[in-house]
UniProtKB/TrEMBL annotation, chain A:
InterPro entries: Fe/Mn_Superoxide_Dismutase, Mn/Fe_SOD, Mn/Fe_SOD_BS, Mn/Fe_SOD_C, Mn/Fe_SOD_N, Mn/Fe_SOD_N_sf, SOD_C_sf. The keyword Lipoprotein does not apply. Keywords: Antioxidant, Manganese, Metal-binding, Oxidoreductase. This is Superoxide dismutase. Belongs to the iron/manganese superoxide dismutase family. It comes from Tuber magnatum.
Automatic annotation (TrEMBL), chain B:
Its EC number is 1.15.1.1. Coiled coil: none annotated. Belongs to the iron/manganese superoxide dismutase family. It is found in: Mitochondrion matrix. One of its GO terms (molecular function) is superoxide dismutase activity. SUPFAM superfamilies: Fe,Mn superoxide dismutase (SOD), C-terminal domain. Destroys superoxide anion radicals which are normally produced within the cells and which are toxic to biological systems. Homotetramer. This is Superoxide dismutase [Mn], mitochondrial. Keywords: Manganese, Metal-binding, Oxidoreductase. GO terms for cellular component: mitochondrial matrix. The keyword Nucleus does not apply. Its cofactor is Mn(2+).
Amino acid sequence: MSLLRIARPTIVRRSLLTTSIRCKHTLPSLPYDYAALEPAISGRIMELHHSKHHQTYVNSLNSAEEKYAEAVSANDVRGQIALQPLLRFHGGGHINHTLFWENLAPKSSGGGEPPSGNLAGAITVTYGSVENLKKNMNASLAGIQGSGWSWLVRDNATGALQIIAMPNQDPVVGKYVPLLGIDAWEHAYYLQYENRKAEYFSAIWDVVNWKAAEARYKAAT
Amino acid sequence: MQLSALLFTQLPQYLLNLTGPSATSLSASITNPSLSILPEDMAKTKFTLPALPYAYDVFWANLAPADTSQAKPESAPKLTEAISAKYGSYDGFKDEFTGVLLGLQGSGWGWLVKNEKTEQLDIVITKDQDPVVGGLAPIFGIDMWEHAYYLQYFNDKASYVNGIWNIINWDTAEGRYLGGRGGL
């Protein structure tokens, strides 16, 4: 899914003689109500997570990109480099959460229904079963120190499926294509599960949208 | 922020297993959190295990209920003098420290430290549960992991940081600044 679909271009006037077009990122709408993923994820968490946390990543990304554009215009390389951690953090946060909302769905819309098609075949080959994949993914999630995400990915170099953990908001880049992401930041579960994160990792599979993962897998193959 | 409310109603289960802190003499009654009260998955992970209880040892001892004399910066005359010298004023120091805390990406802690060689003060960040190392002595630390504030403040970490300034144990901080290892 291209993030450009949800960004609206704005014309930025730099001087009387030149203008440039830059895309302003916006918070994507959820295709379901905040309470629709209950009991796996509470409506309160979904509301805070989407309307506050993700919105902040969007706002901060826009702000960082604006400053970065100014630094580029001014040929200020040090300024550009100083901004890169902000672009990585907030840009990654925007990308990761956009993918996350898409790979969740209410049970009534297929959340939790097992994968099918080519992805299901690849899962069987690599993990033996979906249950075993879940075990591996939950182990990856439990092993995250601090804040981060675990992702089921396709390694484009080999074609194989893999599970990788990414720290903070680092996005999946390079040879890996993200298929399914699970947020292990405390804000993703704390209000409901407190420190019992294993319970959260177990429960979230009830609302995983395998259709989204299949579509991403198809697009990558 | 009422410390009693924070400690007894908002902290995760493993933090509540500290035995017998009274609301008025918290620093005196802190016991070392033992590994057995950590969530099972944390104990099995690759955290640097000695560092995890260490950070909390330092943290609990550098908090005090807001209505005690320990919670007033006046309890730390030498330290506050050094703070004013370095940061211009107590408020200037608070603003700078607050900015550092709010800029922390991911999980971690903010610390006021003293360089053991030069005796200079500094504000540093440690990632995840990394301890303060490298010849720096912690004076006080502030936990910025989401679990430290989320149940009470949700995503509003600015309000959490504003509130925690009211419960810093300046008496302990002064002791650490002057060379004691109070609370460690």
